[in-house]
Amino acid sequence: MGGGEGSTAREALRHRSVERVIMCDIDEEVVEFCRKHLTVNGEAFRSDRLELIINCARAELVKTTEKFDILIGDLADPVEGGPCYKLYTKSFYERVLKPRLKDGGILVTQGGPAGILSHTEVYSSIYNTLRKTFKYVIPYAAHVPSYADTWGWIMASDQPFPKISAEETDSRIKHRIDGELKFLDGEALFASIALNKHVRKSLAAERHVYTEESARFIHGHGTALKN
User: Fold this and answer.
1) Which single residue of 113, 148, 213, 221 could bond 118 by disulfide (Cβ 3.0 to 4.6 Å)?
2) What is the pLDDT of residue 133?
3) What are the tens digits of pLDDT across the range 53-70?
4) Among the options 25, 27, 74, 77, which is catalytic?
5) Contact at 8 Å (CB) between 77 and 109?
6) How far is 108 from 119, CA to CA, in rounded Å?
7) Is 185 a catalytic residue?
8) For the chain, what is the mean pLDDT?
9) For the CA atoms of 39, 44, 50, 52, what is the dihedral angle to 10 degrees?
10) Of 152, 142, 224, 153, which Cα lies nearest the Cα of 188?
């Protein structure tokens, strides 16, 4: 869902076990520009394992009868008037997305800013919403220099996530992924999941559930609110 510049598809395709990636993005102009000019993702766009769909991800999930091992939300942030905030709601997760996961399937979504001062904008709400929808939910975060903040992601499933050591994680990366990863290894994964005390307490105390009627937004606005 989203990921029009191709980077999520690129990283997914590095996994040797991945048979097929469907990238569904609503913005054809962005996709075509990145396909033409963002050479770092050129190989991913040319892969015969990639199926590219230009449409709203929600509409595609409603239409399809296929079920997926993993669904990845590389969506735009929830901004007022933007196209994506409805894809962070409890009704979307429950009625549209979850039925399209296989048994044991996993959702991974970006969740917006997750810094000490910014995580309550939308991240804590999205986390709590997923906690109300899935049995097992893991928040994690890392600093993203281009955003000048810590950024948050969330994994969710109805099956427990296996607990493996940093060494086993490194071994799996070595045997399952093509090329050298610049950021992620076993220690980095554990560090990403180990949120600071303030954010952990805040996430645990969050009670807001993200709905269309009670949506929270980060700073900015979508085209629907522009004059």
Assistant:
1) 113
2) 98
3) 999 999 999 999 999 999
4) 74
5) no
6) 18
7) no
8) 95
9) -20
10) 142
